[in-house]
């Protein structure tokens, strides 16, 4: 059995049968079966679904005016590879086309207000629900360092769920964060 796009195809026995038939001619390792049809039984075949947002060399700071309040990250600069998803730089989200189980991941490098602790997390539907298994926390030092973070998780989504990256400052009000480089992607499993 071979796995192809989440589909099960059982062709091993049929290929063995076809290669043992006398009326098969070879041409550069390709079988040409004149009188033998390969009987591939396809259980299911599903198109791949994925989408990506990313930012490169971003210099836009996001203001975090209230401590412990989530703010949507709105500085994506590019739409990456996509198949079956709807992605918008205007709404800064990836829209899930069909219900199912998905892997969501993000990575980011950022700087911000010195000596502050930031959290980044994936939410769905304009901040209505945090996907708590896709969440990080990072403290920045006093030297203006750039922190790197990454998180991923597997979640069940419904059709038209909107996936977004959100950020907050845990240690103070009137702070800012500049996410220099980032990537967020969604892949249906």
Plain-language structure description:
The chain has 189 residues and is mainly β. The chain has one helix at 12-20; strands at 2-4, 7-10, 24-27, 30-33, 41-42, 50-55, 62-64, 71-72, 78-83, 86-88, 93-95, 100-112, 117-124, 129-139, 147-157, 162-169, 175-188. It folds into 2 domains: 2-42, no CATH class; 50-188, Jelly Rolls. The strands form 4 sheets. Strands 6, 7, 9, 12, 15 and 17 form a 6-stranded antiparallel sheet that branches. The longest helix is centred in the N-terminal third of the chain and has 9 residues, at 12-20. The radius of gyration is 24 Å and the shape is elongated. The two termini are 19 Å apart. Residues 1-24 and 32-43 have low confidence and may be disordered.
Question: Which stretches of 5+ consecutive residues score pLDDT under 50?
Answer: 1-24, 32-43
Helix run count: 1
Number of spatially distinct domains: 2
What share of residues is helical? under 10%
Report the count of strand segments: 17
Major beta sheet, specifics? 6 strands, antiparallel
Cα(first) to Cα(last) distance is: 19 Å
Query: Any idea of the CATH class of the largest domain?
Result: Mainly Beta
Task: Assign the CATH architecture of the largest domain.
Answer: Sandwich
**What is the alpha-carbon Rg in Å?**
24 Å
- Secondary-structure element order, N to C: EEHEEEEEEEEEEEEEEE
Strand content: over 45%
Q: From the helix content, strand content and strand pairing, which structural class follows?
A: mainly beta
State the shape: elongated
Average pLDDT confidence is 83
> Within the CATH hierarchy, at the fold level, what is the topology of the largest domain?
Jelly Rolls
């Amino acid at each position: 059995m071979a796995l192809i796009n989440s589909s099960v195809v059982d062709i091993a026995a049929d290929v063995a049968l076809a290669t043992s038939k006398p009326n098969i001619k070879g041409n550069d390792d390709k079988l040409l079966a004149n009188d033998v049809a390969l009987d591939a039984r396809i259980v299911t075949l599903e198109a791949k679904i994925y989408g990506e947002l990313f930012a490169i060399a971003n210099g836009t700071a996001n203001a975090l005016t209230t401590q412990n309040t989530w703010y949507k990250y709105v500085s994506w600069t590019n739409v990456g590879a996509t198949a079956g998803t709807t992605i918008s730089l205007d709404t800064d989200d990836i829209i899930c086309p069909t219900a199912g189980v998905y892997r969501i991941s993000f990575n980011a490098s950022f700087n911000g207000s010195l000596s502050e602790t930031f959290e980044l997390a994936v939410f769905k539907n304009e901040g209505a629900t945090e996907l708590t298994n896709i969440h990080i926390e990072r403290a920045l030092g006093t030297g203006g360092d750039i922190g790197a973070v990454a998180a991923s998780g597997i979640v069940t989504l419904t059709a038209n769920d909107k996936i977004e990256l959100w950020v907050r400052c845990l240690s103070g009000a009137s702070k800012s964060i500049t996410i220099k480089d980032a990537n967020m992607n969604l892949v249906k499993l």
